[in-house]
Design brief:
Elements: H1 12-28, E1 36-39, E2 46-48, H2 52-57, H3 76-84, E3 90-92, H4 94-101, E4 107-111, H5 115-124, E5 131-134, H6 138-144, E6 153-157, H7 166-180, E7 185-192, H8 195-207, E8 213-219, E9 231-237, H9 243-258, E10 266-273
Parallel strand pairs: 1-4, 1-6, 4-5, 6-7
Antiparallel strand pairs: 2-3, 7-9, 8-9, 8-10
Helix pairs in contact: 1-4, 1-9, 7-8
The structure holds S-adenosylmethionine (SAM).
Length: 275
């Protein structure tokens, strides 16, 4: 396990994932009944952008660093939250963001397999009765920890994609969770380096029998160089009502601020499987 999210926190891919995540949680908050969130690849929870890892890559400067002054529009709900969390220089990852949005009866379950990162996560949430931290394999946790007692909620799957076969594993996980927890919302993040593996992933999902799937994608440039993170995607199963519209507005705003005018930049929210 070589991947450490501290090098990448706040980059364009985090902006996309976290702005959409906040939109999904807002929609879960629309009903009074409690929900649970399972974040299977949690990282360390929150990041210091002045730390040496973030300084070394400087990725956040071309990501969230360009959004500092925005207070209105589709990105504002997420940006207001991160400012409340101390941005800059503190940048809340998915666990800290979700935790800020929970009501008193909602729950957060975090899995992180890396020794040091799971220890950091445990320290961050020590004494929090609404948050459970597991040093546990994400893929195994998806079966072990679903469905939720609350009968509603979100499963966030955000792997580092550092090993072969991650797209296949993700397609399988989507099917497993859909069968165990039919009403659950699922959000799975993936990199877009070049088109072929993404196309194959979408085809596997379309043919896999799980209903009601949309793919949100954001590209900084034509995805033709397999060595570069040219874009990223978030597949959402059981998207809440009106989420697709909101996702389009969020991605359009991100493109306005993060796009560098390269050929092939853009975004799309497309249906992979009908309801
Ligand atoms: N979701 C986080 C956020 O948005 O703030 C970032 C997560 S980062 C992209 C992926 C994390 O997954 C890393 O911290 C890595 O250590 C962890 N990881 C990798 N393989 C794992 C596995 N099989 N089970 C649990 N965690 C894993």
């Amino acid at each position: 396990m070589n991947y450490r999210h501290a090098f990448h926190a706040g980059n364009f891919a985090d902006c996309m994932k976290h702005a959409l995540l906040v939109a999904l949680i807002h929609r879960l908050c629309a009903k009074d009944t409690p929900f649970r969130v399972l974040d299977t690849h949690a990282g360390i929870g929150t990041y210091d952008l002045t730390a040496s890892e973030a300084e070394r890559t400087g990725e956040w400067k071309r990501g969230v660093g360009r959004l500092l002054d925005i207070t209105e529009g589709p990105l504002a709900p997420w940006l207001d939250l991160i400012r409340r969390a101390g941005f800059p220089p503190h940048y809340p990852g998915s666990p800290a963001l979700v935790r800020m949005m929970l009501r008193p009866r909602d729950r957060l379950v975090l899995c992180e397999l890396h020794e040091d990162d799971s220890a950091a996560l445990r320290t961050l949430f020590r004494g929090d009765p609404q948050t459970a931290v597991h040093k546990r394999d994400a893929w195994e946790a998806l079966s072990a920890l679903t469905p939720f007692a609350e009968k509603r909620g979100l499963v966030l799957v955000d792997p580092p994609f550092e090993v072969e076969g991650e797209f296949g594993r993700m397609a399988e996980a989507i099917s497993v969770v859909a069968h165990r927890f039919r009403a659950g919302v699922q959000a799975h993040w993936y990199p877009v380096k070049h088109r072929a593996p993404v196309r194959a992933f979408h085809t596997a999902l379309a043919d896999g029998g799980v209903r009601d799937i949309v793919a949100c994608e954001f590209w900084l440039r034509e995805p033709t160089d397999p060595q570069r993170l040219n874009g990223c995607g978030l597949v959402v199963v059981n998207p809440p009502w009106k989420f697709e519209e909101e996702a389009r507005a969020i991605l359009a705003a991100l493109l306005t601020h993060l796009g560098e005018g390269e050929p092939g930049q853009g975004f799309a929210v497309t249906r992979i499987a009908e309801e």
